[in-house]
Specification:
Helix content: 40-55%
CATH class: Alpha Beta
Number of strands: 8
CATH superfamily: Aldolase class I
Number of domains: 1
Strand content: 15-25%
Strand order of the largest sheet: 1-2-3-4-5-6-7-8
Radius of gyration: 17 Å
CATH architecture: Alpha-Beta Barrel
Largest sheet: 8 strands, parallel, barrel
Shape: globular
Number of helices: 10
Bound molecules: 2-phosphoglycolic acid
């Protein structure tokens, strides 16, 4: 059985005082149990705070995006090596909010994944269809295209990433894909990963994951954990998802 990974995505939320309480709770109350890992992806300005609070704990940390470039005239961007300097393990790449609000294409997302790997980070590559795409019956085609771009760009290194299936219509809406809706998409992603020689890659589910639906999702054979937005801002809720 593959290990489960539960990753919090704080998005653009937090402040020093609130973070201190949340990180403090995670660091004292989460103990690595066999086959379960917990991480939080924080806004870049809080990476130092995450490291100070979590170093030596069983909780890992990461960023929510990295530049596809190594360094240079890219005002406002943050490089993967900068993130890595703060002890981060993960970097989310290609979140649907980045794809939709910042025009990130499959090519850009792949370049970001490559930059993260080069800096020693594990990219969490997000894929997912919009509601309109689902209603047109295009879920598999869209999600497969997004994963295939990563497979093509990374070659054998595809085995070193984490994938997150996040149906866009389920993000922040309270509309979770049911375990029965998510599992077939995860199985399709898995079969492509197996064909690429990366069958052990963790495929997380994301989109309105809460303590009360996590167990059903985690019981599915191809769901290896969760990328958790809103519910990761509440220590009790997030810890319950971690233990679900
Ligand atoms: P949500 O967000 O859990 O708030 O739906 C998930 C995500 O966007 O990663």
């Amino acid at each position: 059985m593959r290990d489960k990974l539960i990753v919090g995505n704080w998005k653009m939320n937090g402040d020093l005082a609130t973070n201190a309480r949340l990180l403090g709770r995670l660091s004292t109350d989460w103990h690595a149990t066999q086959g379960r890992a917990l991480a939080v992806c924080v806004p870049a300005p809080y990476l130092a705070q995450a490291r100070a609070a979590l170093d030596g704990s069983d909780v890992a940390w990461g960023a929510q995006d990295v530049s596809e470039h190594r360094a240079g005239a890219y005002t406002g961007d943050v490089s993967a090596s900068m993130v890595a300097e703060f002890g981060a393990r993960y970097a989310i790449v290609g979140h649907s909010e980045r794809r939709q609000l910042h025009g990130e294409t499959d090519a850009i997302v792949s370049a970001k994944a490559r930059a993260a790997l080069a800096a020693g980070l594990t990219p969490i590559g997000c894929v997912g269809e919009t509601l309109a795409e689902r209603e047109r019956g295009e879920t598999d085609a869209v999600v497969a295209r997004q994963l295939d771009a990563l497979i093509e760009a990374l070659g054998r290194d595809i085995a070193r990433i984490v994938v997150a299936y996040e149906p866009v219509w389920a993000i922040g809406t309270g509309r979770t894909a049911s375990a029965a809706q998510a599992q077939p998409v995860h199985a399709m992603l898995r079969s492509r990963l197996v064909r690429a020689g990366a069958g052990d890659v963790a495929v997380l589910y994301g989109g309105s994951v809460k303590a009360n639906n996590a167990a059903a999702l985690f019981a599915m054979p191809d769901i290896d954990g969760a990328l958790v937005g809103g519910a990761s801002l509440d220590a009790d809720e997030f810890l319950m998802i971690g233990r679900a």
